[in-house]
Amino acid sequence: MTRRHLQWRTATVFAALAAACAVGVNLIAQNPPAKQSVWDGVYTEAQAARGARQYGRACEQCHGVNMAGDPVEEIPSLVLDSFMTDWNGKSVKDLFETMRRSMPKDNPGSLGTGAYIDLVAYLLQANKFPSGVKELSRTPDQLEPIVIERAKAQ
Predict the structure, then answer these.
(1) CA-based Rg of the chain, rounded to a whole angstrom?
(2) How many CA atoms are closer than 13 Å to the CA of 9, on its beta-carbon side?
(3) What digits encode the pLDDT tens for the residues 34-53?
(4) pTM for this structure?
(5) Residue 89 has pLDDT above 90, yes or no
(6) Which pLDDT score, from 0 to 100, does residue 153 have?
(7) What pLDDT does 152 receive?
(8) What average pLDDT does this structure show over 6-22?
(9) What are phi and psi of 70, to 5 degrees?
(10) Given CB 3.0 to 4.6 Å as the disulfide criterion, which of 43, 81, 111, 152 pairs with 115?
(11) Which of 76, 46, 81, 72 lies closest to 64 in space, CA to CA?
(12) Quick check: 47 and 136 in contact, CB under 8 A?
């Protein structure tokens, strides 16, 4: 095989790979992940139980046993109407990112991705969203399509 033939063959392979990558990126852009709702059972009971234990260690001292917070100290409630006022229409990823960026107050971001995801599951359970058979993903970007909704869409 001549050097020129080898260079042509290499260039052809690279062009084919580039074209395949472009097609793949285009398909992903055309088919974004399907939206889900927190009403679709997006966490498991076991995941929420881990989150409850984590809540007791890292969150309860400020937000309280009943998650009601403290309006005098400007600590938000994490349940029911107060929670839904703040989070309705936002994604589970938004909730995760806010928690990771700002909690615990004395050491934000210190719990690790898995612990924050488990805490999100616990908050969903505390707010009466149903559990399911599949855990919330440990990959934060995969939480983006899951929307927090006050009421189940019909």
Answers:
(1) 22
(2) 6
(3) 899 999 999 999 999 999 99
(4) 0.79
(5) yes
(6) 77
(7) 84
(8) 53
(9) -150, 100
(10) 111
(11) 76
(12) yes
